[in-house]
Amino acid sequence: MTDERYDEYTRLRFERPSDGVLLITLDDPDKLNATDGPMHQQLSRVFRTIEDDRSVRAVVVTGAGKAFSAGGDLDWIADQVGDYAQTMRVMKEAGDIVRTMIDCDTPIVSAINGVAVGAGIAIALMADVSVIAEDAKLTDGHIRLGVAAGDHAVAIWPLLCGMAKAKYYLLTADFLDGREAERIGLVSKAVPRDDVLSTAIGVAEKLAAGPADATRLTKRALNHWLRQALPNFEASLAYEMLNFLGPDAAEGLAALQEKRAPDFGAAE
Fold it and tell me: What is the rounded distance in angstroms from the CA atom of residue 139 to the CA atom of residue 75?
């Protein structure tokens, strides 16, 4: 795709599968599209660019290869743990991802083709319509790392699946599959893995063919529910970043790197 406004987004791949539809692919399949510094920064900006591109009437976001996104890259997380300046940079970007997805009136469809964790699941679930593979695994995962669930979940999980399920999955960081995610209302549709992208593009094509202003304004009005939740989100994001400066995050990161269970009691 040749469009200079997207040239700066080197960690994202852009295609136009049909008229008015923009397909964005998180493009680091060797690392299961884990979000590192450049990808996180680009995700915090791209939806502003899309909002300004009136040739785009609907967006599809997916992951390259067999994963949507395996969460934060561990080397990138290691740079943040205990580092105040880096934590402040990441907090700004994480907040911008959520806020720009809410404020982008162009409808966004996620094609969750595989595992979705942490920072990656924020993109998947903040989309307006989410299509997931029935066998795909997802978890917010922050508790596993020893930090509060701050990237997006406090804003939207209670609205999607109710407070009881939101508390269970955010406090335990248990995985659930696409079928269960659809059953509890966390995602819009669960389909066989081979049908995820075609289904998502079909939804985007339907949205793109509809009345643009009415579609955009309906999304804008619905997203006032999310805007009301922004104070809760901002608190959760600040708590997450505070945790990155404490001992639990260091222990959680070490456990992930060493592929062992964390001992958060020992970190106190």
Answer: 20
Distance of alpha carbon 181 from alpha carbon 188, whole angstroms: 9
pLDDT digits (tens, 9 = 90+) for 107-140: 999 999 999 998 889 999 999 999 999 999 999 9
Element (H, E) at 157: helix 153-161
The rounded Cα 119 to chain-centroid distance in angstroms is 5
| Structure token digits, residue 15 | 């295609």
| C-beta of residue 137 within 8 angstroms of C-beta of residue 234 | no
Phi/psi of residue 84, nearest 5 degrees: -65, -45
Domains of the chain: 4-258 (3.90.226.10)
Q: Compute CA distances 25 → 16, 43, 109, 163, whole Å.
A: 11, 11, 12, 31
Model-wide pTM > 0.90 = yes
